[in-house]
Amino acid sequence: MKRNLVWAVCFAMLLLGVAAVAPAQDRDGRTLSHASLAGEWGYTETGTVVPPTGVLVNAAAVGKYAFNNSGHFTGTQYSSNTGAALGTDAVQDMKRGTYTMNSDGTGTLTLDVYDPTGTTLRRHSVWAIVLDDNGNEIRGIMVSMTLPNGAKVLPIMTMTAIRVFPGRGGEQER
Predict the structure, then answer these.
(1) 3-class SS of residue 13
(2) How many CB atoms are closer than 10 A to CB 156?
(3) What is the pLDDT of residues 15-64, one digit of tens each?
(4) pLDDT > 70: what percent of the chain?
(5) C-alpha torsion sign, points 22, 26, 28, 31
(6) Do residues 96 and 118 lie in contact, with contact meaning Cβ atoms separated by under 8 Å?
(7) For residues 162 and 44, what is the distance between their CA atoms, to the nearest angstrom?
């Protein structure tokens, strides 16, 4: 009896160990990779940043990303913040960056935000992300922000992105 119990416990531990190191898969059994993000995504960002002045600045943005299969992406957005002059409308931004996607569904976005012409750098940021909802949603939190002059900004920003056309883009290439 004791021997069977020992074997059952050992087998259960083995199964749990294998499950802990197995790569993440979506509902269809596909392993997550760079191709998991390929395609177009609509997103919103909301939160607060603390610039070197120490004054809290609320910020929000809505935009669109286009991810390729090789770890690069571009995007456009309209952003607004309480640090803008009164009467100032939302500002249009252009984004370029790189990304990593781990087999467990976590990843990193590293991006630069430019003026609409793509010539004047406005800020640099890094986001920790996780792929959710069977590969159709991204959730993220900004982990760092740096201004063009090198000043660090403390971010408290989150992002949610939804695949614009589920079933297209990287879906076929996973």
Answers:
(1) helix
(2) 14
(3) 333 333 334 444 455 566 667 788 999 999 999 999 888 989 999 999 99
(4) 71
(5) negative
(6) yes
(7) 9
Place of tokens 């297209």: 168
**Residue 43 belongs to a domain with what CATH number?**
2.40.160.20
User: Each residue of 5-24: pLDDT tens digit?
Assistant: 444 433 444 333 333 333 44
Residue 107 domain boundaries: 26-173
Report how many domains make up the chain.
1
Q: Is 58 part of a structural domain of the chain?
A: yes
C-beta pairs of 126-132 under 8 Å, 24+ apart in sequence: 127/159, 129/99, 129/159, 130/105, 130/106, 131/32, 131/36, 131/37, 131/101, 131/105, 131/106, 131/107, 132/105
